[in-house]
Amino acid sequence: MSHHITEVKELHYVYPDGLEALSGVSFRIYHGESVGLVGANGAGKSTLLMLLVGVLFPSKGEVMVGEMPVNKKTLPLIRQRVGMVFQNPDDQLFMNTVYDDVAFGPRNYNLGEPEVEKRVIQSIEKVGIAHLKDRAPYKLSGGEKRSAAIATILSMIPDILAMDEPSSGLDPKSRRRLINLLKGFSHTKIIASHDLDMVLELCERTMVLKNGKLVADGPTAEILNDAVLLENCGLEIPLGLQNCPVCGSTK
Amino acid sequence: MAGIIQSLYEIRFLDELAEKRTVIHNIHPLAKLLTTLIYIVAVVSFEKYEVSGLLPLIFYPVIIIGLAEIPLLPILKRLLLVVPFALGIGALNPVFDHRIVFTAGWFTLTGGWVSFFSIVIKSILTVLAALTVIATTGMNRISFALRLLFVPRVLVLQLLLTYRYISVLMEEVARVLRAYHMRAPLHKGVRYNAWGSLAGNLLIRTFERAQNVYQAMVLRGFTGEYKTGGAPQITITDLLYLTVWTLFFAAARLFDIPALIGSLVTGVVK
């Protein structure tokens, strides 16, 4: 399944103001893998995701999705394959109804209206918001908005889901629903998050970014148990792996 | 503050009305747009002292509002926003134009007043027509109709995106103002010394939000053409709708219907 490999080679990105957001990042993500991308604020997580979907282009280095390099020519294909869920669902929902929003992507790829409808219904049923199909997105609750934003991506039938802080701003129950939803997806997932407990549950592999450099890449259970590494990178051991805060008993 | 957030919801109100399904909503957007344009041209083409000839044209918005089940109050509220402009434009007419056009005992009517009323009626009618076409069609479908009329893609896109981003801008305004008032509870408005930084901040934030929204659109295959789903076919009903209204507008324009009815009635009475 080499066509589903996402590969990043010696990636550098410098913002126009001179800030080097990524320097020399390289990794390979295989088909069906679920990868957590963690790091302190400003470590370069969002920039990396933007580079994966071709919103930004590297200053140096290369991004390959499948066997295609990400460049201006391949963008339409890349964007069909990699679905990006933004940190703020309000940025992603801009149509008048949830239905139109979910249909926006497929329509842009010139699919016939019956196929568009099929995809929309499948996507909103999958995320459990079929009953909100005719509602205005800006009137939904935070959790519903997040589900709608994910549905807008699913309707493009991507192979890879790139998510920026998917659990931010969600109440515990909505967060749990989101985690269960994502667990059910067979897509390759790249999840940038500060919610280390979620990463622990969803991702078998974790990459740690610090000041634009990839400082660790390995099994989640190992990385998220490495107190020194996490401390160095502005993170801490997830609550799920810490001792009991009340009685202090070890896990 | 609450006012801004409220109006944010109200901006989309017309678009929400457009999602209804009534006889009028089902008419092809192109037929509705053309009818509205012809109507506006017909209304504006009346000469400046015409009042009675304009009256039959009120039937058009009234019938549409009735058939499309548009709630009257919110539409009138929006209409009120425009009336001051019309009043402003016509306000000086009664002062300068003293030509007497009608006298009945002590009552004299000058040309200034007649043209003033004509301006007000014309603006009410045209604005009502524009509001009803949006409330029964929605911006997306109006843009679709504009494209059918070969209006350049760039212009249509500008119109649509401006319409979209108004709410983005207003959300940011609401946030900035909320933050301001939290820390300046005694100020009634925003103090002038904060205007500059407030507006600058707002501009940058809006750019940022607009960029994010644009990126979200581009990532889902947006290439400049705003696709809004199935393009409905023009049917006989749509053509009939356009023809009947056009004939009515032409009749109202060419003949003074109230005068005709008046003479008919008086003729009968004689």
TrEMBL record, chain A:
The keyword Nucleotide-binding applies. It holds the Pfam family ABC_tran. It is an enzyme of class 3 (hydrolase). Keywords: ATP-binding, Cell membrane, Hydrolase, Membrane, Nucleotide-binding, Translocase, Transport. This is Cobalt import ATP-binding protein CbiO. It comes from Pelotomaculum propionicicum. Belongs to the ABC transporter superfamily. The keyword Cytoplasm does not apply. The gene is cbiO. Its EC number is 3.6.3.-. Residues 6-236 form the ABC transporter domain.
From TrEMBL, chain B:
CDD domains: EcfT. The gene is ecfT_3. It comes from Pelotomaculum propionicicum. One of its GO terms (biological process) is cobalt ion transport. This is Energy-coupling factor transporter transmembrane protein EcfT. It comes from the Bacteria. It holds the Pfam family CbiQ. Keywords: Cell membrane, Membrane, Transmembrane, Transmembrane helix. The keyword Lipid metabolism does not apply. The keyword Membrane applies. It is a multi-pass membrane protein. It is found in: Cell membrane. The chain crosses the membrane at residues 30-47, 53-72, 79-96, 116-137, 144-166. Its main location: membrane. InterPro entries: ABC/ECF_trnsptr_transmembrane (IPR003339), ECF_CbiQ (IPR012809), ECF_transporter_component (IPR051611). GO terms for cellular component: ATP-binding cassette (ABC) transporter complex. NCBIfam families: ECF_T_CbiQ.
